[in-house]
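hiii so um. not sure if this is the right channel but i have a protein structure encoded as tokens and i wanna go backwards to a sequence. like what aa goes where. can anyone help
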């Protein structure tokens, strides 16, 4: 029997080349036919090949830019206004006297009955009794409090100051309690508010000391109105600073001991249950009528991998996450790790003792060692911002002075009122919330849109053009396979 081998499809290379030229002439990819057709001169075909390669390179370049932009996950902010029918949540208002300690308390002697009655016999008073000489406990504490103690306290010299510090350093316990010193010897809310002579919310709700929650910071004691710690938060139904919180305050400049460059108040308007950052507030000088127009702004941000990289995790001891709270807690954690104690004004979450005099050098050094970038403190994913616009005028005028004297039986002179009184009014500028929501600034639809747009601009083709190339390649491969297939036929052998 004789065997014959025949190709199924004896398509020559010339025929395949002819198919390629036919495809190039009919494809929707612009310019390819001028390269593939033989009817054009060599120079023209080369020029068109250069054109085609150039625009293809430019297209690839723009594609790489689009891909990089997509990977970077940019965001865009959509701004809108919301006007709730039930009003807006009134912010927490924290009030701090720029003076840390009251002189009348600092000067109370140990033998005075008010020493025990006012709670001025704080830890460390009895231990330093033998080295403070004629100084009261408060004077001795202030003498050792800072490097300027010798200038602030009469009778405090370098020797006395060092003797007091040595007693604290030799103690096995941390006798000096800064938070206790700030709380007991600082201003109390009743004296600041002239015994709440005038304090109201929305004109008809009378407020008292129960509406103010004390908050200890490293710069002194503050008092927060509408803190939300009792479970209820006030809402404002009327707009205008005069229809929010209105309160008469007494700075008590005659009580000045250790301040922050000036006499007055620090006021911080913030969201409830957030960390109180005194650096974000504004100052009000004595003899001032301050009207604060508040604008509520709500931020909604996107977490990683988007560029905003917001965070919304829990902070131990702080109810609501904020970037400020995260930073201060990071500083506190560094101090706790290096010094084994807690900084004043930060929440006690691990039962660590409060930093005392013997920890001062370590605390100061740890503050310098903090790497804020390593803290990884980003903005909160959901945050309420109360933007404050403050305007000032002189207070009180002569008519108010007469009213205070005759109607409220105030004994202070008119000069005292002008040098100490502050009338603070805080309210919403508009009963609307500005919402700033971050959304993806460049999603998959944008990426595909730029792919297609640049493809049409530079190459004059579309996704279907790619399908044409895939179809042509498939046919070429299948042709090769069929060409190699053999049809084995058998015929009778002449010798059989």
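sure thing!! here u go:
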């Amino acid at each position: 029997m004789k065997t014959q081998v025949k190709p199924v499809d004896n398509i020559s290379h010339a025929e395949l080349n002819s198919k390629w030229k036919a495809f190039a002439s009919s494809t929707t990819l612009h310019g390819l036919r001028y390269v593939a057709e033989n009817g054009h001169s060599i120079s023209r075909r080369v020029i068109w090949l250069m054109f085609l390669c150039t625009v293809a390179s430019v297209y690839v370049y723009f594609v790489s830019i689009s891909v990089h932009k997509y990977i970077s996950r940019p965001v865009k902010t959509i701004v809108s206004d919301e006007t709730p029918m039930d009003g807006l949540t009134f912010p927490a208002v924290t009030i701090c006297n720029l003076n840390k300690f009251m002189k009348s308390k600092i000067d109370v002697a140990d033998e005075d009955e008010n020493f025990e009655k006012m709670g001025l016999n704080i830890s460390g008073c009895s231990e330093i009794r033998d080295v403070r000489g004629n100084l009261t406990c408060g004077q001795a504490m202030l003498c050792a409090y800072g490097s300027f103690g010798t200038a602030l306290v009469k009778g405090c010299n370098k020797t006395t100051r060092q003797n007091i510090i040595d007693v604290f350093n030799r103690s096995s316990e941390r006798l000096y309690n800064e938070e206790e010193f700030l709380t007991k010897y600082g201003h109390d809310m009743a004296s600041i508010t002239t015994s709440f002579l005038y304090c109201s919310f929305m004109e008809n709700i009378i407020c008292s000391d129960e509406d103010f929650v004390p908050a200890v910071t490293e710069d002194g004691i503050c008092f927060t109105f509408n803190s939300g710690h009792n479970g209820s938060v006030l809402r404002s139904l009327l707009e205008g600073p005069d229809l929010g919180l209105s309160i008469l305050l007494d700075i008590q400049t005659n009580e000045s001991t250790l301040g922050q460059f000036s006499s007055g108040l620090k006021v911080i308007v913030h969201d409830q249950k957030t960390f109180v950052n005194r650096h974000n507030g504004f100052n009000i000088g004595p003899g001032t009528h301050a009207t604060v127009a508040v604008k509520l702004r709500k931020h909604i941000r996107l977490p990683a991998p988007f560029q905003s990289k917001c965070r919304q995790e829990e902070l131990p001891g702080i109810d609501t996450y904020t970037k400020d709270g995260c930073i201060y807690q990071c500083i506190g954690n560094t101090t706790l790790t290096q010094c084994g104690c807690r900084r004043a004004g930060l929440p006690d979450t691990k039962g660590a003792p409060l930093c005392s005099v013997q920890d001062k050098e370590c605390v100061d050094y740890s503050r310098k060692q903090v790497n804020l970038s390593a803290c990884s403190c980003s903005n909160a994913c959901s945050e309420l911002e109360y933007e404050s616009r403050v305007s000032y005028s002189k207070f009180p005028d002569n008519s108010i002075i007469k009213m205070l004297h005759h109607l409220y039986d105030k004994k202070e002179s008119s000069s005292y009122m002008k040098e100490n009184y502050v009338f603070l009014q805080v309210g919403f500028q508009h009963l609307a919330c500005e919402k700033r929501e971050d959304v993806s600034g460049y999603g998959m639809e944008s990426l595909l849109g730029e792919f297609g747009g640049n493809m049409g601009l530079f190459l004059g083709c579309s996704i279907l053009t790619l399908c044409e190339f895939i179809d042509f390649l498939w046919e070429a491969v299948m042709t090769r396979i069929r060409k190699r297939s053999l049809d084995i036929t058998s015929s009778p052998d002449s010798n059989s």
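oh and The first strand starts at residue 2 and ends at 7.
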